[in-house]
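To the wet lab folks,

You asked to see what we're planning to order before we commit. Fair enough. Below is the target structure as tokens, and below that is the sequence we designed to fit it. If anything looks off to you, flag it before the synthesis order goes out.
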């Protein structure tokens, strides 16, 4: 029986915490669970084949894409399969690798488990270490002596600068991480902002969605949203109870349908969930931009304010339930009166920022910067 995402996530995390002698014993047991946990390690490095990379914003000519200084380079997205990669990790590793390979077919793009023996065989490559993919100082040194550039792309994971001295630089999924690193990186390191792109399942043309009723939706864990339960109880917020993923780890079509069913998404987070050192990307905002929706975010959230701008009209002004309710009612009045042009202009700009082609270009520019 194939393991679902949730089950494999839990089992992988438990497995990763076991002593080595016990893990060796489990590896010797011929079961599907053991095979699924170890398949990425056994496979080692896996070549990512180029496909068509779609422009979702209408501003890119894919025929004109150039890899520039990356031509002929080997780019390896490294991850830890024993830490049960979550959705954000899947997007930041496998989707990013696919987009880079598709936009720049003259590069050799691979994904590789950090436990694979193939990892130490790489020479003169660009190795992008994903979330939860921590390498020992000894392993970092061994890879560096073979001419490899090590770059961290940790998404929202806290940094441990004591163990990151061997890195050439950082790719930042959020503006808040990018700004924070300015005062932490060494003189020989670089950092670059590559916004966290939404899942390809949400790449829908603006013409495909048309809403006849006003509604605000929240899609995700309730604890990550600001007063989500209270706003739902007041009838101001629609909260999806459907599972985000299905057994093959792709987004559930029902969940995508739910998230697409409203003209506005609520993305305000409690300040406790956006504390310094735990950087949260603007992923839901970019997802809404791809769907042609508007968003309601918190003005007190630096990430929201950076991408939406100070003049964006639909903010939760204070971290109170009354302010959150007022923001929703203000958005409803504007939507029903047809006064959403300013907000729509902002979201169209963010649609271009989060376009798959732009995502690949951002990675290209970041890796060229690190390779100098």
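Sequence we intend to order:
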């Amino acid at each position: 029986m194939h393991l679902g995402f949730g089950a494999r996530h839990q089992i992988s995390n438990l497995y990763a915490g076991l002593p080595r002698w016990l893990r060796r014993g489990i590896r010797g047991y011929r079961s599907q669970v053991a095979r699924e946990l170890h398949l990425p390690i056994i496979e080692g490095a896996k070549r990512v084949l180029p496909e068509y990379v779609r422009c979702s914003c209408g501003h890119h000519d894919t025929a004109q894409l150039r890899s520039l200084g990356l031509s002929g380079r080997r780019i390896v997205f490294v991850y830890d399969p024993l830490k049960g990669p979550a959705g954000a990790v899947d997007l930041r590793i496998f989707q990013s690798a696919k987009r880079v390979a598709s936009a720049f077919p003259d590069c050799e793009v691979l994904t590789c488990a950090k436990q694979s023996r193939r990892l130490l065989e790489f020479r003169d490559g660009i190795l992008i270490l994903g979330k939860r993919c921590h390498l020992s100082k000894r392993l970092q040194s061994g890879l560096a002596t073979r001419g490899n550039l090590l770059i961290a792309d940790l998404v929202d994971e806290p940094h441990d600068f004591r163990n990151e001295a061997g890195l050439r630089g950082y790719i930042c999924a959020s503006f808040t991480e990018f700004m924070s690193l300015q005062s932490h990186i060494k003189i020989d390191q670089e950092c670059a902002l590559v916004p966290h792109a939404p899942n390809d399942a949400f790449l829908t043309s603006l013409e495909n969605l048309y809403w006849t009723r006003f509604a605000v939706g929240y899609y995700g864990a309730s604890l990550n949203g600001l007063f989500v339960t209270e706003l739902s109880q007041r009838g101001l917020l629609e909260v999806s109870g459907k599972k985000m993923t299905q057994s093959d780890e792709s987004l559930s079509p029902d969940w995508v349908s739910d998230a697409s069913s409203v003209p506005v998404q609520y993305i305000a987070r409690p300040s406790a969930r956006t504390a310094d050192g735990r950087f949260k990307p603007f992923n839901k905002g970019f997802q809404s931009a791809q769907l042609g929706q508007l968003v309601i975010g918190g003005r007190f959230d630096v990430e929201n304010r950076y991408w939406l701008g100070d003049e964006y009209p639909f903010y939760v002004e204070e971290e109170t339930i009354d302010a959150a309710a007022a923001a929703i009612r203000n958005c409803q009045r504007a939507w029903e009166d047809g006064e959403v042009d300013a907000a729509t202009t902002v979201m169209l700009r963010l649609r271009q920022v989060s376009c798959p082609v732009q995502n690949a270009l951002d990675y290209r520019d970041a890796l060229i910067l690190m390779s100098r």
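Structural context that might help your review: The domain at 200-353 is CATH 3.40.50.2000 (Rossmann fold). The longest strand covers residues 74-79.

Thanks,
Computational group
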